[in-house]
Amino acid sequence: MRAAILTAYGQTPEIGEFDDPVAGDGSAVVDVQAAGMNPVDISKASGHFYAGSPPLPSVVGSEGVGRTEDGRTVYFERPVAPYGSFAERALIDPSATYAVPEGCDPALAVVFGIAGLAGWLALEYRARVREGETVLVLGAGGVVGQVAVQAAKLLGAGRVVAATRSEERLRRAAEQGADATVQIGAVDDLAEALREASGGGVDVVVDPVWGEPAVAAMAAMNPRGRLVQLGQSAGAVATAPSAPIRGKTLDVLGYTSFAVSTEDKRVAYERMAKHAAAGELSVEVERIPLEDVPSAWERQLSSPGVKLVIVP
Hints:
The protein is an alpha/beta fold and 312 residues long. It has two domains: 2-99 and 282-311, Quinone Oxidoreductase, Chain A, domain 1 (Alpha-Beta Complex); 116-258, Medium-chain alcohol dehydrogenases, catalytic domain (Quinone Oxidoreductase, Chain A, domain 1). Helix content is 30%, strand content 26%. It has helices at residues 39-45, 106-109, 114-127, 143-154, 167-175, 190-198, 211-219, 242-247, 262-277, 293-300; strands at residues 2-6, 14-17, 28-36, 58-59, 63-67, 73-77, 89-92, 98-99, 134-138, 159-164, 180-183, 202-207, 221-229, 251-254, 285-289, 307-311. The strands form three sheets. Strands 3, 5, 6, 7, 8, 15 and 16 form a seven-stranded mixed beta sheet that branches. The longest helix has 16 residues, at 262-277. The protein is globular, with a radius of gyration of 20 Å. The model has no long low-confidence stretch (mean pLDDT 94).
């Protein structure tokens, strides 16, 4: 079968022929309809991934939507090594799949996996956002941020503020339901701009960026606010003053999908997919032919702002 194959750590995958997967020992084969490209794919391929490196050679790709032998369309993640999702077929654990509703585009359905779950569960599972609260989404131009902006509204937030560096991506956030936007890097006092956009203060922050924007967000938060930390695209280190954290009794909460049970993820995934099928949740996707994975891989390194979806 045709596949994107990693032959050496730290290198861009190459397109070539790879042995077909064979079902057995609790695994099943799916025909891949769409596969999502994520920063974690590049981290795994580096050979320095904290959860372990893939074998060599192996097919890259950590998630996908595929059709099972009995005709069901399912979302899957963490395919069985050495078979990743950037291929015509993949080997999966059937017990860890989520049903894709009839009528949901596979290219959109894959968005609600790794990226979508981070955006949704940061709010529902970790922050436990409450009806009427004000939510700030940092990094709102990325895929996680796009989902979080819409998830906040669907989960009952009263006001949603989107913040990112790109003016174009802020316009998109407004179209996706953000009540106010703040362009990071275009204001003199980011904390004050966030406070003003929120109407006086923020209850919940979804933070996939960390660094200086996260520190500014803390300053704009209401007492007993919750900041959910799930990424570091603006910097791995943030120097935050003690006073606002202790004085406002803020919670800084870490989030990773690895710590969430399969059942909790399945419930959230299927809820997002139903919203998408009803036209209530959307994310910009770009379909990439399998043969173009090497060039898409290079684009992913610079945060393309759209979900790159590989279509075998």
